[in-house]
Amino acid sequence: MGLTEIYNQYEKYFKGNILPYIKCNNCNYKFYYPRDMCPECGSDNLSIEKSNGNGKIYSYTVSNKNIWAIIEMNEGFKFYANITNSGTVDINKRITITFINKNNKTLPYGEIQD
Ligand SMILES: [Zn+2]
User: Fold this and answer.
1) Residue 31: which CATH number?
2) What is the pTM of this model?
3) What's the gap in Å between 38 CA and the centre of ligand 1?
4) Closest CA to 11 of 106, 100, 78
5) Are residues 42 and 87 both part of a single domain?
6) What's the 27 CA to ligand 1 centre distance in angstroms?
7) Within this chain, do residues 31 and 59 fall inside the same structural domain, yes or no?
8) Domain membership of residue 64 as a residue range
9) What pLDDT digit, counting tens, does each position of 48-93 carry?
10) What separation in Å is there between the alpha carbon of 34 and the centre of ligand 1?
11) Lower CB density within 10 Å: C or N end of the chain?
């Protein structure tokens, strides 16, 4: 699976409001940012999986009223996303992933569940 193929698959999943991630079939490591090799063991035996869209805030920063968070998903991978609702952001707050279309691109955002 090449990088272009991974990006294309990701885009397709985003359009279907699904958060994808990559699983290494050799060592079982899970990661989000597209790579054609496992960052843990170097294997190229990878598959794209679908996340259930639930996770929690691992860490966050606020800049210009935007909240950026590292979200730890239930499946065990982390990714970086903008938080849509600013209410009561905090470490370990539960979030679900929501999708927003901006400038013809659908991208995942985190939404805090209170
Ligand atoms: Zn691996």
Assistant:
1) 2.20.28
2) 0.91
3) 5
4) 106
5) no
6) 4
7) no
8) 54-112
9) 999 999 999 999 999 888 999 999 999 999 999 999 986 689 999 9
10) 14
11) C
